[in-house]
Amino acid sequence: MQPILCTLIYIVHQGQVLMMRRRKQPNLGLWTAPGGKLEPGEAPAECARRELREETGLVVDKLTLRAVLNDEGPQRWLMFVYFGELNAAAPRPGLIECPEGELVWLDLDIVLQMEIPAADAVFFPKVMAADSPVYEAKFFYDQNDTLLNWIDFS
């Protein structure tokens, strides 16, 4: 079975990160970064920019690839995780309504205390650590989508 190709985009502004409380599966009710599936012929970076614009209305000059992740479970995912910053001097931007979930700016230091997917708790600190190499890992789930374990490749 081929993996579903998707992106996540963590956008930081004035010590906060933009997070979404999901209104649908996967991760219904949990906090995640905006993102979505690649369209046919689309590069991961193109997908990240498109999904960010569609879900948040934001356009970022520079996105940096921070992680490549395999999820092995009832569904297989190959995720490209990006990081971007908005101009720190600018006021926090307003957000559009998003059918995918509720968008909220959260302080960086509380994200790991929020209800986030188990794998996100593993890779979020690595994505935020700008001085580390691209994080690569494979996450294994049971039939109920419960994280069992993972392998770090970086």
Question: How does the SSE layout of this entry go?
Answer:
Blueprint: E1 4-13, E2 16-22, E3 31-32, E4 35-37, H1 44-56, E5 63-72, E6 76-85, E7 101-107, H2 118-128, E8 135-141, E9 147-152
Instruction: Bin the strand percentage.
Output: 35-45%
Count of alpha/pi helices: 2
Overall mean confidence score, pLDDT = 93
CATH architect. name: Alpha-Beta Complex
Main sheet properties: 9 strands, mixed
Percent in helix = 10-25%
Give the full name of the CATH homologous superfamily. Nucleoside Triphosphate Pyrophosphohydrolase
Order of helices and strands: EEEEHEEEHEE
Query: What's the alpha carbon Rg, rounded to whole Å?
Result: 15 Å
Distance between the termini: 25 Å
Q: From the 3D structure, determine the CATH topology.
A: Nucleoside Triphosphate Pyrophosphohydrolase
Low-confidence stretches: none
- Class computed from helices, strands and strand pairing: alpha+beta
Supply the number of structural domains. 1
Number of strands: 9
Shape: globular
> Which oligomeric state applies?
single chain
- CATH class equals Alpha Beta
